[in-house]
């Protein structure tokens, strides 16, 4: 989905984006990617830098699909670094609290739900929850959304919409609170680094050219964005 991103979204510790990579890294592409990270300070610092880098890329480029495609290729997540959208048929979720106010609609206004996964080489990289107001779309748009896998942004592009980012947040921090003020990192272990299913989330409104909000989108990026081959995860001697 094409969108205008805003770098002012609230991400804590944004300065980590500039962390230099301290070691040269080599890898060979393979599929599926190896998600194994060892729990040590190097891995934690690298994971944080990568999440902040991905977040900055998503916020500063208009297409999440193309951004993830570049990410997939650069980090060897799949042999064929092509991202495809997959509509989850029959999915349903209630509107988040406060969504009707954000969409500027009454309690009786119908709202539809669509869930789409962005997939690269069999890896689901993100899951997008989309609540939209059908009365603010044309009948042809609603029909296409009901009966095809066409990306939402392409379907509604005639609305000349803009994206208003409401929030962007890390759902998981590899580093402890206060790490940049001297809090020590956890000691190295021989165990895998415990990474949750979702690591980053963006929330945004889509607003038509005549200033009517018509869609609330919540994009949750999965741990698979870190599922690169193991050769990329350790410093070379």
Automatic annotation (TrEMBL):
GO MF term list: lyase activity
Entry keyword set: Lyase, Signal
Keyword Repeat: no
Signal sequence, renumbered to the chain: 1-29
InterPro entries: Chorismate_lyase_/UTRA_dom_sf
Highest taxon in the source lineage: Bacteria
Keyword Cell membrane: no
Annotated Gene3D superfamilies: Chorismate lyase-like
Protein name: Chorismate lyase
Native organism: Dyella marensis
């Amino acid at each position: 989905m094409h969108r205008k991103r805003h770098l002012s979204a609230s991400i804590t510790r944004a300065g980590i984006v500039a962390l230099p990579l301290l070691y040269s890294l080599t890898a060979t592409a393979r599929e599926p990617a190896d998600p194994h990270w060892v729990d040590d300070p190097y891995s934690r610092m690298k994971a944080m830098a990568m999440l902040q880098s991905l977040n900055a890329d998503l916020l500063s480029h208009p297409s999440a699909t193309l951004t993830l495609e570049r990410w997939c290729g650069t980090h060897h997540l799949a042999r064929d670094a092509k991202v495809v959208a997959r509509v989850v048929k029959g999915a349903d979720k209630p509107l988040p609290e406060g969504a009707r106010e954000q969409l500027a609609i009454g309690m009786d206004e119908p709202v539809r739900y669509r869930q789409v996964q962005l997939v690269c080489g069999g890896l689901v990289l993100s899951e997008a929850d989309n609540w939209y107001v059908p009365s603010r779309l044309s009948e042809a748009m609603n029909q296409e959304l009901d009966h095809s896998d066409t990306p939402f942004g392409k379907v509604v592009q005639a609305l000349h919409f803009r994206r208003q980012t409401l929030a962007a947040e890390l759902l998981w921090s590899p580093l402890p609170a206060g790490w940049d003020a001297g809090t020590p990192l956890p000691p190295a272990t021989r165990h895998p680094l415990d990474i949750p299913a979702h690591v980053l989330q963006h929330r945004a409104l889509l607003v038509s050219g005549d200033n009517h909000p018509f869609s609330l989108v919540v994009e949750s990026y999965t741990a698979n964005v870190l599922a690169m081959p193991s050769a990329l995860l350790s410093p070379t001697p």
